[in-house]
């Protein structure tokens, strides 16, 4: 089957054929959804032959593949990306126009799959895009959640979670393959037995199982013909329906097995504050890695392949701790099913995994109770104990007599209940351990996994995150991409370091004028979208000050909010005149985890502050706050190109990297931020004069914490801070209810775990520098252009080259 090539006429014929045969309608009787599904099928058919050829070439070449194991993939829209990668955009637009249809209208019909929570899932999507573009064999493995990250709505300013029904109108980009389903077992017991050779073996007798059904998604490289695979697993019951029970009249019981099985892939990150929620999360994690390992061994390797050499053909990248249960699963396969001795199985396993740690927060490093593991995965718990025993012998040999160190490093933690430290298991099994920004990787070595770095210093490395320039510049900011093409040619799309060639244009008056025109156009586009989508009207002529990221205390949305309230209070009290406030719209976008009370209270407070500030005539319209609900990739693609100021204000030493900071800088926003995560590298690259630095350094944070941080002292000594917090406590933003926001304010005054009050004055001072620069639009534009020119380093293509060289030790296919 040869790859189709489409002219406009050919595209129209194929589109109408899909509309007639797949949707069963004529053009005149078709709905917009029919038209979208037919368009998606037309583009998918174009890519399909290239996908099949990619799979054939990869298997024939017997080359090493990257198995990217991730619980999250925040993909964004598939249609736009497929049109870009296949160079079909103009043909499709003209073909649809000839049919009396509009490509933007059909594009708007797509519901993006919300299969991720934020940066982790978006990073995974960027990485698999880059690997395809770089011609590197890769299979992304994950879960096809029936309901992804919730759809966020606001009711009286409070977050309300609605189901994310992304599959409701069809999923044209996936290929289900039920015939390739994998049985995944749970529960039961283990037993010892003697095999035919007289060797003592172990057998797992599971209590129940489910089927993992693969759904394949194509991951096209940019204009290179390669199409890699993303394989997402959906859970179904092995025996979904009991006819005898149904005929007896117990209809609910008849489908109980189906309901129970399908819960596993029902929802992204089930709320885990209950024992049932915790168990479901562990089921999810084992479900997808067990299916993925079995899939690769059965379907990607030739018959008779010697699994002693498995690392020659695969490296499984553990994207955080969620997939780490894959380590004992591979051991189980090799020992129990393939007859390996323990030592040779461990030798093979240790060559097949690498581990990326994405956090510095101790609570984010997963620990599973041995009671739960033993009940759900008894054989795996036995293997973990054996791995730990083997590992601790090595610790004792290297550090004889150091029992305290051995206890710190043990995979098993003895706390209120015994548990398995999954980050420690990953560190023991991985060929390499990497952080995701220079500072983060240093803190991993020095603090989070220090004992492991002492034992294996060569095992640790850094790979700073990156973002795909295809989606987040070429596609999201196409007016700017046209300007880049006119100035540099089109090669920057796959060689982002070429943005360095823009530096001289920071002094070019014509280029600066066009740059400002693009930014103004992006603001108008965003204004139109938010008005139609949310009923939010953005004022003209305002600095657009943007903070979009997951709502978490360490990211410090509360600090941004205190700045807003302080400005407002100073106008009300007459400390400053409204005319002296730089016209500014602060735009938030954030979701709080459903069970995270403080985060949800913060969202409520932001929305209530917005209601009051936006309607107070005393501000003369110079300060506005907007919080569109349900921030996602689709909204990000319109919002990021419009931003003037990027808020990256986490407490130093808390953010692993960030990728939003990179997207904003690449699209011409200036950053106000702490020396945290990849902010450090952004500042070093763009230069101090083009970055608004504030706040304590990580060592200063550590020293303040060790000395005994007292946030109340900052509240008492800083008049503007005190007045802002008191204004909230007075009930000014809550209709006179003086206690509605006590949870947020009293937490800041009495605890303030992430030291927002300590950094408040430094942040306000940095904002004054922002306003001074923004008042000089020539200087601001120059800084914005230099931010773009100097941040080409943050391409996910560069990240992938670093992984290939430092961790995976493989090369692209020729």
Automatic annotation (TrEMBL):
<comment type="similarity">
    <text>Belongs to the glycogen phosphorylase family.</text>
</comment>
<dbReference type="InterPro" id="IPR000811">
    <property type="entry name" value="Glyco_trans_35"/>
</dbReference>
<keyword id="KW-0808">Transferase</keyword>
<keyword id="KW-0663">Pyridoxal phosphate</keyword>
<keyword id="KW-0119">Carbohydrate metabolism</keyword>
<dbReference type="InterPro" id="IPR011833">
    <property type="entry name" value="Glycg_phsphrylas"/>
</dbReference>
<protein>
    <recommendedName>
        <fullName>Alpha-1,4 glucan phosphorylase</fullName>
        <ecNumber>2.4.1.1</ecNumber>
    </recommendedName>
</protein>
<comment type="function">
    <text>Allosteric enzyme that catalyzes the rate-limiting step in glycogen catabolism, the phosphorolytic cleavage of glycogen to produce glucose-1-phosphate, and plays a central role in maintaining cellular and organismal glucose homeostasis.</text>
</comment>
<comment type="function">
    <text>Phosphorylase is an important allosteric enzyme in carbohydrate metabolism. Enzymes from different sources differ in their regulatory mechanisms and in their natural substrates. However, all known phosphorylases share catalytic and structural properties.</text>
</comment>
<keyword id="KW-0328">Glycosyltransferase</keyword>
<dbReference type="InterPro" id="IPR035090">
    <property type="entry name" value="Pyridoxal_P_attach_site"/>
</dbReference>
<dbReference type="Pfam" id="PF00343">
    <property type="entry name" value="Phosphorylase"/>
</dbReference>
């Amino acid at each position: 089957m040869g790859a189709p090539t489409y002219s406009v006429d050919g595209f129209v014929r194929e589109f109408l054929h899909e509309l007639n045969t797949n949707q069963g309608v004529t053009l005149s009787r078709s709905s917009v959804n029919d038209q979208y599904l037919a368009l998606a099928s037309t583009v998918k058919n174009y890519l399909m032959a290239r996908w099949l050829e990619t799979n054939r070439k990869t298997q024939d070449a017997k080359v090493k593949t990257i198995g990217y194991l991730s619980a999250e993939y925040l993909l964004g829209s598939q249609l736009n990306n497929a049109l870009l990668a296949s160079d079909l955009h103009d043909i499709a637009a003209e073909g649809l126009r000839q049919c009396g249809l509009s490509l933007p209208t059909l594009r708007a019909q797509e519901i993006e799959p919300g299969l991720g929570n934020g940066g982790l899932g978006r990073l995974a999507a960027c990485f698999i895009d880059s690997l395809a573009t770089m011609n590197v064999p890769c299979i992304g493995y994950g879960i096809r959640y029936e309901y992804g990250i919730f759809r966020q709505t606001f009711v009286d300013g409070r977050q309300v979670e609605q189901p994310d029904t992304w599959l409701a109108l069809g999923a044209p980009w996936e290929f289900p393959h039920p015939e390739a389903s994998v049985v995944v077992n749970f529960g039961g017991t283990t037993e010892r037995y003697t095999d035919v050779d007289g060797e003592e073996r172990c057998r797992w007798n599971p209590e129940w199982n489910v089927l993992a059904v693969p759904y394949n998604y194509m991951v096209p490289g940019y204009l290179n013909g390669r199409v890699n695979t993303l394989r997402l697993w959906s859970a179904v019951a092995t025996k979904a329906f009991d006819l005898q029970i149904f005929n007896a009249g117990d209809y609910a019981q008849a489908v109980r097995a189906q309901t129970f099985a399908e819960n596993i892939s029902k929802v992204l990150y089930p709320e885990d504050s209950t024992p049932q929620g915790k168990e479901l999360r562990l089921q999810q994690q084992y479900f997808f890695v067990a299916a993925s390992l079995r899939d690769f061994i059965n379907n990607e390797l030739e018959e008779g392949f010697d699994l002693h050499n498995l690392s020659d053909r695969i490296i499984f990248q553990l994207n955080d701790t969620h997939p780490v249960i894959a380590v004992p699963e591979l051991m189980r396969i090799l020992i129990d099913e393939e007859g390996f001795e323990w030592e040779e199985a461990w030798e093979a396993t240790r060559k097949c995994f690498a581990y990326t740690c994405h956090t510095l927060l101790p609570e984010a490093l997963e620990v599973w109770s041995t009671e739960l593991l033993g009940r759900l995965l008894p054989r795996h718990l036995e293997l973990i104990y054996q791995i730990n025993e083997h590992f601790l012998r090595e610790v004792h040999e290297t550090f004889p007599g150091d029992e305290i160190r051995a206890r710190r490093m043990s995979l098993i933690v003895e706390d209120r209940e015994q548990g398995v430290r999954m980050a420690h298991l990953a560190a023991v099994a991985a060929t390499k351990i990497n952080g995701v920004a220079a500072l983060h990787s240093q803190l991993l070595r020095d603090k989070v996994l220090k004992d492991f770095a002492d034992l294996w210093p060569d095992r640790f490395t850094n790979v700073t995150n990156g973002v795909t320039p295809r989606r987040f510049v070429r596609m999201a900011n196409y007016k700017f991409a046209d300007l880049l093409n006119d100035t540099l040619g089109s090669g920057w799309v796959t060689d982002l370091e070429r943005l360095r060639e823009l530096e001289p244009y920071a002094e070019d008056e014509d280029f600066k004028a066009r740059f400002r025109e693009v930014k103004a156009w992006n603001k108008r586009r965003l204004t139109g979208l938010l008005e139609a989508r949310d009923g939010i009207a953005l004022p003209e002529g305002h600095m657009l000050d943007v903070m979009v990221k997951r709502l978490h205390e360490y990211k410090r949305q509360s600090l941004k909010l205190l700045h807003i309230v302080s400005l407002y209070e100073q106008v009300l009290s007459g400390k400053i005149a409204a005319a002296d406030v730089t016209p500014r719209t602060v735009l938030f976008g954030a979701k709080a985890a459903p069970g995270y009370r403080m985060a949800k209270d913060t969202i409520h407070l932001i929305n209530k502050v917005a209601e009051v500030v936006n309607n107070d005539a005393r501000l003369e319209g110079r300060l506005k706050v907007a919080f569109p609900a349900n921030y996602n990739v689709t909204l990000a693609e319109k919002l990021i190109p419009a931003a003037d100021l990027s808020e990256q204000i986490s407490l130093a030493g808390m953010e692993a990297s960030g990728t939003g900071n990179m997207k904003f800088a690449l699209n011409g926003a200036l950053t106000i931020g702490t020396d945290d995560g990849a902010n450090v590298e952004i500042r070093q690259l763009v230069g101090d004069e083009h970055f608004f630095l504030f706040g304590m350094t990580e060592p200063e944070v550590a020293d303040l914490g060790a000395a005994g941080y007292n946030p109340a002292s900052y509240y008492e000594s800083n008049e503007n801070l005190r007045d802002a917090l008191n204004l909230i406590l007075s009930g000014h933003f809550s209709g006179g209810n003086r206690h509605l926001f006590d949870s947020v304010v009293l937490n800041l005054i009495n605890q303030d775990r992430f030291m927002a009050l300590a950094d408040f004055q430094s942040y306000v001072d940095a904002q004054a520098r922002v306003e001074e620069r923004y008042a000089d639009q020539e200087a601001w534009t120059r800084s914005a252009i230099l931010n773009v020119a100097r941040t080409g380093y943050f391409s996910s293509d560069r990240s992938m080259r670093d992984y290939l060289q430092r961790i995976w030790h493989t090369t692209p296919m020729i």
